[in-house]
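Students often ask why inverse folding is considered easier than folding. One informal answer: many sequences map to the same fold, so there is more than one right answer. In these notes we will look at a single instance of the problem. The structure comes first.
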């Protein structure tokens, strides 16, 4: 059997305005360790840059695709151009980019809208019964998109405000520790809290590895 091809959707490069780098790298490492192939993806959109030293806006704008290419070592595709038929599963690391660049949850909460090309990709994967993983704040994106198909079972750890927003969007929130992953088998969705709980890279990586393992296991089931 061929190795599963796992799309990894990045939202830039850096926790405050893009993909959380630790989470992205842990995801890529776990995919490689599992003998699967990572396919890095990002939307070709611009976002407001945050100075990660001062955590303040710089007044500049950056390209999510070009910034994500730093993490992907240059090997990356636009989410608008990827063919879902070429992927066996999909994973979204967290970082504020997931809530600012892939959707506007950071600004509008449960009244947010998702980027159309991201919504199309997720719904195509879901419709094809291919598993999808979400880490950290990215389950908020999942809740918004899954509104269209009746919601899902998700975790962002135990933050009450975000959990309430997820449930307002029609999904069910499950409290989970950082090292664990919640598996919604009916929707083939796997979520883990990552840096929504922290507190450091080791437990975050343990939870991401668990999420990746569950996603790959589900992908192999759907391939048979």
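Output (designed amino acids):
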């Amino acid at each position: 059997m061929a190795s599963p091809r796992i799309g990894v959707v990045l939202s830039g490069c850096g926790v405050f305005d893009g993909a959380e780098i630790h989470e992205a790298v842990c995801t890529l490492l776990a995919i490689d360790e599992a003998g699967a192939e990572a396919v890095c993806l990002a939307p070709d959109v611009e976002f407001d840059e945050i100075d990660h030293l001062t955590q303040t806006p710089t007044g500049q704008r950056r390209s999510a695709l070009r910034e994500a290419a730093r993490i992907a070592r240059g090997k990356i595709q636009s989410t608008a151009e990827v063919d879902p038929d070429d992927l066996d599963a999909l994973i979204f690391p967290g970082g504020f980019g997931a809530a600012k660049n892939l959707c506007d949850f950071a600004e509008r909460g449960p009244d947010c809208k998702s980027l159309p090309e991201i919504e199309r990709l997720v719904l195509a994967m879901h419709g094809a019964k291919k598993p999808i993983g979400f880490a950290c704040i990215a389950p908020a994106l999942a809740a918004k998109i899954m509104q269209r198909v009746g919601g899902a079972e998700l975790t962002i750890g135990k933050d009450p405000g975000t959990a309430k927003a997820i449930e307002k969007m029609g999904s069910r929130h499950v409290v989970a520790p950082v090292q664990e992953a919640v598996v919604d088998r009916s929707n083939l969705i796997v979520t883990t809290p990552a840096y929504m709980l922290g507190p450091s890279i080791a437990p975050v990586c343990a939870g991401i590895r668990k999420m990746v393992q569950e996603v790959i296991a589900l992908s192999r089931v759907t391939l048979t």
